[in-house]
Amino acid sequence: MPRPRAPRETVVPSPPAAPPGTVRLAAGGLSVLVSRGPLLAGVALTAVLVAVVAVCLSVGDVAVAPLDALRAAVLGTGSPRDLLVVTELRMPRVEAGVAVGAALGAAGCLMQTLSGNRLATPDTVGLNNGATAFAVAGVVAGPTSVLPPATALTGAATAAALTLALSGGVGQRGYRFLVVGLGVGAVFGAATNLILSRAEIDAANAAFAWTVGTLNGRSQPAVTVLEVGLLVCLPLAVVLARGLNALRFSDAVATVLGERVRPLRVAVLLTSVVCAGLAVAVAGPVGMIALAAPEAARRLTGPGPVPVLTSALAGAVLTLSADLVGRTVMAPLEIPVGLVTAVVGGPYLLWLLLTTRTRRTP
Fold first, then answer.
1. Where is the chain membrane-spanning (predicted)?
2. pLDDT class for 254, splitting at 50, 70, 90?
3. What is the DSSP string of 99-115?
4. 262 is in which domain, residue-wise?
């Protein structure tokens, strides 16, 4: 009688080792390779953002312990006083700061990479000034919570179209795009001052908040519109970032690599316009965030993919930190976040101008 054969052992091949500088993330039968630098930078910035949020929710005229503040914000538990202070008074402001900073950081990263110029941001190419001018005009014409998002987005798109048309595009004309954007922004800035000077005093006071950049008393519908825009724009920006890696080279090389250069540029510019316009509709022209956040993200991640998400996280951290300084450094007097970023960002911009070489953004 033949002896029964022993069952064969099924040998499951182990996945190949991750290339140097990457980490393999596996879930079920799927795995993906992620660059180690952006992953570590994203985790670190997320931890810093949570810490800054906790401090922002706990610091003020009524002190709340950071853990109690996070518990009240996330779980909705705590004393009635903590719930009132955290969820009703401070959480909307923190929510607006995170959304505005993330939008400006992502928009700055996209525009810098698109133009190959570290100085090309929504601040410097006229998008913020265009959005501000249209938002102020909308508030003066009809001060409702619906007008600023729509008018600011229209203004940002108008400024982008003018800059793009007058400069002959971006691409190899990055510096021309920047210079023309400065001129377009100056024109819209003058238009804003003209509108305010001709408006009635009550309407001018209502619109003044859109000229300095502040997170105090922001419209919740405008914040909601910005958050919905981010839910669409951030994933789209991550997809577009893969094509932007090829645009770091010449157009000919990018075309050989299979990228459709012109549609990619249009999509990146439109995404930047939406992010910048909706951010201005919430907080006004908060300067320097779109300039500093991508630079901080690149220094943290090192060479590699375009750091769109890392720039968004860095922008949120910088915006909340600036707002925290403005609320506390001269309390009870409050300094608008736009003034804080201007004071801190001015010397940074001078340093960047003195150290920037004529080269494409790394």
1. 39-60, 126-146, 152-170, 177-196, 222-245, 266-293, 337-354
2. low
3. HHHHHHHHHHHHHHHHH
4. 92-355
